[in-house]
Amino acid sequence: MAMLRSTARLSMLWVGLAAVVGCGSEDVESPGILNRRLASLADARQRVKTRLMVQQPSPEPYESEVPEGVEVITYESEGRRLMAWLLRPSRKEGATKEGPAPAVLYAHAGFALARGDLETARPFADAGYVVLLPSWRGENGNPGNFEMYYGEVADAQAALEHLAGLPGVDRTRLFAVGHDTGGTIVMLLAMMTNRLRAAAACGGIPDMRAIVQEQKKPAFQMMPFDWRDPLELDLRSPARHLRDLKCPLYLFYGERQDQLYYAQAAAMEVLAPNLGKIVRVVQLPGTDHNTAIDAAVPRILRYFQWHLDDDRRSAPPAAY
Fold first, then answer.
1. Cα 205 to Cα 236: distance, rounded to the nearest angstrom
2. Is the dihedral of CA 294, 263, 280, 86 positive or negative?
3. Is 302 exposed, middle or buried (0-12, 13-18, 19+ CB in 10 A)?
4. Is the N end or the C end of the chain the one with fewer CB atoms within 10 Å?
């Protein structure tokens, strides 16, 4: 009965949203992706408040010590003041005055911002980007509850807006990168905002709903929402909203451990051209879920540089 009720909730929501936004039903991109798309992901998330079965902060412990070389700032998201780390690019030797710099929002791995995320993100600052590493609601002592890919995506949007308004940031040259849980958040973010020139994710989950429905059990032990509700799962599954993608998206996966995620992402890559979208998927040889990000970062830097070039008559880098 619970599944029947949530399926009805899903259908009623899309019908209701169709009336609000004035669009008709559209055929699904492929089997396994939402059968009827009657509204955008942004519209749906604005109207639907997640129903948390467990209301508590992130289950992951965090370090209170601030790493050397970062500036601790706060940004506002839905009435909450949340903590973030800011990395400024090193001033180029011999430079007198420099214009606004491009910027990267880096979405951390796991369920708390940690020193390891800073070390992974540092090459972007070394390459000349302003880098913002936000923590999300319920993490690192922040107010709010752990929502697992829901409110955290709203926080990512708010952090991106904050980043765009920082002194010294070129708001027309913004990018997003995420690893692990941050990869899923960045995938969803790229379907929610027009701010990004491009986005890259490593180890993100394309279709949580498919995984849960196949396994008939929670995909993770710490899922705080009703995992039996297909709407809750759908709104956390970026592959089901490919039509909403607003910038080129590059996805990286480890050769080991990430085979299922890679297969889901590869399906997105096949579907993307028919929707006028750009999705590129790379499986990184000799890596696993945790180590793939180290191999991905140099490729992401090359890909971002190509998107920064004013004259992009050349083809994008061949091997991301």
1. 9
2. negative
3. middle
4. N
Q: How big is the CA angle at 213 (ends 135 and 27), to the nearest 5 degrees?
A: 90
Whether the CB-CB separation of 212 and 231 falls below 8 Å is answered with no
Question: For residues 149 and 183, is the Cβ–Cβ distance under 8 A?
Answer: no
Size (the chain), residues: 320
Long-range contacts of 63-71 (CB under 8 A, 24+ apart): 63/114, 63/115, 64/141, 67/115, 67/118, 70/118, 70/133
pLDDT computed for residue 277 by the predictor: 97
Q: Where are the domains of the chain?
A: 2-91+99-308
Cα(172)–Cα(73) distance, integer angstroms: 22
* Residue 160 CB-density burial (10 A; 0-12 exposed, 13-18 middle, 19+ buried): buried
Distance CA 131, CA 104 (A): 5
Instruction: Read off the pLDDT of residues 235-293 as tens digits, 9 standing for 90 and up.
Output: 999 999 999 999 999 999 999 999 999 999 999 999 999 999 999 999 999 999 999 99
**What is the distance between the alpha carbons of residues 158 and 249, in angstroms, rounded to a whole number?**
20
Tokens of 144: 């709010």
Pairing of strands 130-134, 80-87: antiparallel
Count CB-CB contacts under 10 A for residue 128.
15
Q: Which two tokens stand for residue 315?
A: 């083809």
Cβ–Cβ contacts within 10 Å for residue 269, how many?
17
In three-state secondary structure terms, 309 is coil
Rg, the chain, Cα only: 19
d(CA 201, CA 296): 9
| Main-chain phi, psi angles of 7, to 5 degrees | -65, -40
CA dihedral 13, 15, 18, 24 (to 10 degrees): 140
Name which CATH class applies to 2-91+99-308.
alpha beta
Tokens of 209: 């709903």
